[in-house]
What we know:
The protein is mainly alpha-helical and 240 residues long. 48% of the residues lie in helices and 10% in strands. Helix 1 (12-25) links the parallel strand 1 and strand 2 (37-41). Helix 1 packs across helix 10 (195-204) and helix 8 (150-164) packs antiparallel against helix 9 (172-184). 45% of the residues are buried.
Amino acid sequence: MKTLGIIGGLGPMATAYLLQLVIEMTDAKTDQEHLDVIVFDRPSVPDRTAYILDKAKPSPLPSMTATAKTLEQLGAGCLCAPCVTSHYFYKELSSSVSVPFLNMVEETAKELKTAGKQRPGILATTGTVSTGLFQKAFEKEGLQAVLPDEAGQALVMSLIYDDIKAGKPADPEKFQKVSEMLYSSGCDCIVLGCTELSLIKKSAGLDGRYLDALEVLAKRCVEECGAPLKAGYQKLLGKA
């Protein structure tokens, strides 16, 4: 099996949760049947959204590229970054190494198409939304992406930065309000398109209409590295 390399710290809790998901999704009966994983936890990497919205801010790309190269040198045979916004730099990151670099945005789009979804809503940072990362990937798979309005996007950013990144519990009222906005717009599911939002699903036990991009990434990490995937994770979307 390949060794998995994780560019971590973007943010720290999401990195820890990805590692937990990879372990939980692997159909292993002994320690030795799990993947070898190298985590380079680097929260000092400049904020991705801040740079995308204002190029005068420090670029996170040099730090992320150096981290990717270090992971490859340490023996990682497959890389990933559990940060959706960082995929703005995916082309540069993936070309900086010679091993596969998983794209969680594209993999999420494929998961939605396989599940037969047509109109997914997107909860993500303003940086991710402004780049059109999910919108382009979804369009490529024939899906119609739906975004929150300005007020809804403000709620999403508050959940991510004022709550989760600040080390506080996510405000369930904010999350419920923006979810209802998207469902009222005709969405048939909602993508948790920021790894901080993945922690809401972990703690709140959301129903099967929510697809967590971090769960998609964990699933693909297990498959790409050659470990057996537990049957319960073959499908990540279910009924409400």
